[in-house]
Amino acid sequence: MFLFRRGTGRLAPEQARTRSLDGTAVLLDVREGPEWRAGHAPGAVHLPLTRLLAGAALPPDVRGRPVVAVCRSGHRSQQAAELLVSHGVDAVDVTGGMTAWAKAGLPVVDGRGQDGRIA
Questions:
Q1: Which residue from 16, 28, 88, 21 is spatially nearest to 52, judged by alpha carbons?
Q2: How far does the chain reach from its first CA to its final CA, in angstroms?
Q3: pTM of the full predicted structure?
Q4: CA–centroid distance for 79 within its chain
Q5: Over the range 29-42, which residues count as b (16 or more CB within 10 Å of their CB) and which as e?
């Protein structure tokens, strides 16, 4: 049974945060390394879309769990969610990406766990 609608489902940033905090989904940040290090959601798992497109396996703590993909603006994460769904993963993405996340006042941390910024 899928927690999310199959296909290109999208969640608002607040919904994505709730699902990642309550453990019903893993937040998967698909931005590149410098973007991730500048600022990401606490508890998110990092796997750049470029690696995902190249066939990289999902990290062990993501496998078998529903995924909420996020990027900067929502384009790459939507592509990632579609790819994951095509491989049988229960996946959606965050509307507006980390830009919308930050605008909603949700926390962003940098690579050292300090206050981050969206790059």
A1: 28
A2: 36
A3: 0.92
A4: 11
A5: bbbbeebbebbbbe
- Give the phi and the psi of residue 21 in degrees, each rounded to 5: -70, -40
Q: Which residues are catalytic?
A: 71
Structural domains in the chain plus CATH codes: 10-103 (3.40.250.10)
Tell me the C-alpha distance between 4 and 66, whole Å: 8
Q: How far is CA 46 from the centre of its chain?
A: 8
What confidence tens digit (pLDDT) does each residue in 10-46 have? 999 999 999 999 999 999 999 999 999 999 999 999 9
pLDDT tens readout for residues 56-74? 999 999 999 999 999 999 9
For residue 119, count other CB atoms closer than 10 A to its CB. Answer: 15
